[in-house]
Amino acid sequence: MNKAYWVIAWQSITDPVAVERYVAPATDAILAHGGHVIAAGVPAKAYESGLSSRLVVVEFDSLDAAVSAYESADYQATLVHLVGAAERDVRIIEGLA
Question: Which of 3.40.50.720, 3.30.1490.20, 3.40.50.300, 3.30.70.100 is the CATH number of 4-94?
Answer without folding.
Answer: 3.30.70.100
